[in-house]
Specification:
The protein is an alpha+beta fold and about 500 residues long. It has 21 helices and nine strands. It has helices at about 35, 50-60, 105-115, 145-150, 160-180, 225-230, 235-255, 260-265, 270-275, 285-300, 310-315, 325-330, 345-350, 355-365, 375-380, 385-400, 405-420, 425-435, 440-455, 460-470, 475-495, and strands spanning about 50, 65-70, 80-85, 90-95, 120, 125-130, 135-140, 195, 200-205. The strands form two sheets. The chain has a six-stranded mixed β-sheet with strand order 1-6-7-4-3-2, with helices on both faces. A three-stranded mixed β-sheet has the order 5-9-8, covered by helices on one side. Strand 8 and strand 9 (about 200-205) form a beta hairpin. The longest helix has 20 residues, at about 160-180. It is elongated and about 85 Å long. The two termini are about 40 Å apart.
């Protein structure tokens, strides 16, 4: 589920179809206006309805290569990874045809979940309801599930401090949802816990939706379902706490142990058999006992005796260790974004700091010398009235850009782009920077992508993308762009 980049412009997915040639294939930079208008104050997309065509395009026609997971045999709800036209990575859950027959109910439920926004959630960005199609769109988490890192790890087991962090973040996610009136979470398990680009754990928003018309809320082995659910078939807030207790057992043991068996071990004080042997020496007996005690409280047979999410958070905060250490370091990945493998140039460092003034100085200094062939085309077309108007709009934009009047710079450059018959990477670069100064990062990213399409090896295209991505909170993608920009800038200076 994770992805590696060789070029920023190559998608995490879909690149297999582009061939393995030496050229860089740049994704389209035509950003849907509705996406630009749906950006929230924190840089994340607000909830919206998508068309099936938009989601089909984002997933390359729901290609098999883009399937992230499938759920169940009789009613497979397939999750795909995809990319919107503005390069935002998304996860799409596509329900089977028999699920959610009531389109209105589906939309109402999705819109309610879509109002939630928390850094501890993989938030719901939108939905689609056309004909028989029912799809949910959420933020994409690039680094697999808790089940993968806990049960099927390849390089090293998850550290004790990270397991405690997972437990706390999940408890905080449940507390947030409860406070927002969404206390019910369906089938909470290790596959519902996802890791983002920085390896921070997040709770999938999909579990906040009712599963389908069959009313089934638990698809895991019945040995792991709350006892009251077996009696009534209903999920309650206390049922969610029970499932949280099974997750605590997972974190403690590194295995998926049925609660009844775990409780027998706890009653017999056989904690050694319950604890993951890979954790030896990483915590004291008292720390282990506290987590076991909390799990036991969550797994009480009487629902009213279980703690609520706020109590879970209160109990887990004192247990935290190495709180100042980033999650990717605790996960054994000291360089999560790969940036240390290639040092940034001074201009790259300035872009990392989002120093827009430095970029302005560079663009002013180099003028239009990077517009290969533009001078010849300009002189050839000087005689036409249209070209004169185009040159006037360019001069207007340049004058405003020089004076740091970025609103008028945007207007002038936009007239040049819309009226003119030639393409200038410098114009797009200057308008991109003007958008950044005007706090319009999505528009800036679109122009920066256009610069790359016109001049694929111009380092400023990647630097502008990086600054826009940083402004949008997409740090890891920005690091990749910074690395690529520094590489191109270094190669240019040595040639």
């Amino acid at each position: 589920m994770g992805c590696k980049f060789s070029k920023y412009s190559t998608c995490c997915w879909g690149s297999e179809q582009s061939g393995g040639g030496g050229g860089v294939q740049v994704p389209g930079a035509n950003i849907d206006e509705n996406e630009n208008n749906n950006i929230e104050g924190n840089g994340s997309l607000s909830f919206r309805e998508y068309t099936i065509d938009q989601l089909r395009k984002a997933t390359s026609g729901f290609a098999v290569d883009n399937i992230v997971s499938e759920h169940g045999e009789k009613a497979p709800n397939v999750v795909f990874k995809g990319k919107l036209e503005n390069q935002t990575r998304i996860a799409i859950k596509r329900f089977n045809k028999s699920a959610w027959p009531d389109a209105h109910q589906f939309l109402e439920e999705a819109k309610a979940v879509g109002q939630l926004r928390s850094p501890k959630l993989a938030n719901l960005l939108g939905c689609c309801s056309e004909g028989d199609e029912r799809l949910l769109v959420s933020e994409y988490m690039s680094n697999d599930t808790l089940a993968k890192h806990l049960f099927h790890w390849e390089t090293q087991p998850m550290k004790w401090a990270m397991r405690l962090r997972v437990a706390l973040y999940l408890a905080q996610a449940l507390e947030y949802c409860t406070n927002k009136g969404r206390a019910l979470y369906h089938d909470l398990n290790a596959y519902r816990v996802l890791f983002d680009d920085d390896f921070n754990p997040k709770l999938s928003c999909f579990g906040l939706m009712k599963n389908s018309r069959d009313g089934k809320s638990y698809s895991t082995n019945l040995a792991f379902t709350p006892p009251e659910y077996l009696r009534t078939g209903r999920v309650t807030p206390e049922s969610v706490t029970y499932s949280f207790g099974t997750l605590l057992l997972d974190l403690l043991s590194g295995k998926h142990i049925p609660p009844s068996h775990a409780l027998d071990l706890i009653r017999d004080r056989n904690l050694q058999s319950l604890t993951d042997s890979c954790l030896e020496g990483q915590f004291s007996d008292d720390e282990g006992t506290e987590l076991v005690r909390l799990a036991s409280r969550c797994l009480q047979s009487e629902p009213r005796e279980r703690p609520n999410p706020r109590s879970l958070v209160t109990a887990l905060i004192p247990l935290q260790k190495d709180s100042e250490v980033p999650s990717h370091v605790l996960m054994g990945i000291p360089d999560a974004d790969g940036s240390a493998a290639f040092p940034l140039t001074p201009l790259g460092e300035a872009c990392l700091r989002r120093d827009l003034t430095s970029l302005h100085e560079v663009l002013e200094k180099i003028g239009y010398k990077d517009d290969e062939g533009a001078a010849t085309e300009l002189s050839f077309q000087m005689w036409t009235n249209q070209m004169q108007q185009t040159l006037d709009s360019k001069k207007k934009g340049d004058a405003a850009f020089r004076q740091k009047d970025f609103k008028n710079a945007i207007d002038g450059y936009t007239q040049f782009i819309e009226v003119g018959s030639m393409t200038s990477p410098t114009i797009y670069a200057r308008r991109s920077l003007s958008y950044l100064f005007s706090n319009m990062p999505n528009e800036a990213l679109g122009d920066a992508m256009q610069v790359q399409m016109i001049s694929p090896i111009w380092h400023l295209a990647f630097y502008l993308q990086a600054v826009a991505l940083l402004a949008l909170g997409r740090k890891n993608e920005a690091q990749v762009a910074l690395k690529e920009g520094s590489s191109l800038e270094t190669n240019k200076s040595t040639n």
